Amino acid sequence: MQVNNDIKIGIITVSDRASAGVYEDLSGKAIIHTLNEYLISDWTEVYEVIPDEQEVIEQTIIDMVDQQNCCLVVTTGGTGPAKRDVTPEATEAVCDRMMPGFGELMRAESLKYVPTAILSRQTAGLRGGSLIINLPGKPKSIRECLDAVFPAVPYCIDLMNGPYLECNEDVIQPFRPKKK
């Protein structure tokens, strides 16, 4: 376990309209709010609102992982079937390995609320020692999906020798194996 007081988490909102200032980014703020509820550890957000351009998404993820040293990058938006929804493709292009269980669980959770959850293409992957998770674009769906997958996130980061994420267990129950 690496105890680190310099925990950085990347939040990327992928939206043509939010990046152009047509409307306020509520999704990225929902991720920040949720992570503040989950985490007791001090952490710093590295936050970007960018257009639905695969090259821009790839470069933003690479920067957050390779230059900013984010142990976790959470994206929102660009996961549907529309032509400009390319966040999963950008994530796959920059990851060393994919973690398909995250997308599977998020879709299963979302299906409890809307039948269109099968249209979502959320995924997750690893780049170096960082976990990248793609979330849907609606704030309500963000919380539902994070509630489902976040219990595995701190241990995943532990396994990659990342910083120790201490959680508020009254809000979210992280899974870590019992010490023998």
Automatic annotation (TrEMBL):
The keyword Nucleotidyltransferase applies. Keywords: ATP-binding, Molybdenum cofactor biosynthesis, Nucleotide-binding, Nucleotidyltransferase, Transferase. GO terms for molecular function: ATP binding; molybdopterin adenylyltransferase activity. The keyword Transferase applies. It catalyses: molybdopterin + ATP + H(+) = adenylyl-molybdopterin + diphosphate. Residues 10-156 form the MoaB/Mog domain. GO terms for biological process: Mo-molybdopterin cofactor biosynthetic process. Its EC number is 2.7.7.75. It holds the Pfam family MoCF_biosynth. Signal peptide: none annotated. PANTHER family: MOLYBDENUM COFACTOR BIOSYNTHESIS (PTHR43764), MOLYBDOPTERIN MOLYBDOTRANSFERASE (PTHR43764:SF1). Catalyzes the adenylation of molybdopterin as part of the biosynthesis of the molybdenum-cofactor. Belongs to the MoaB/Mog family. This is Molybdopterin adenylyltransferase. The lineage of its organism: Bacteria, Pseudomonadati, Bacteroidota, Flavobacteriia, Flavobacteriales.
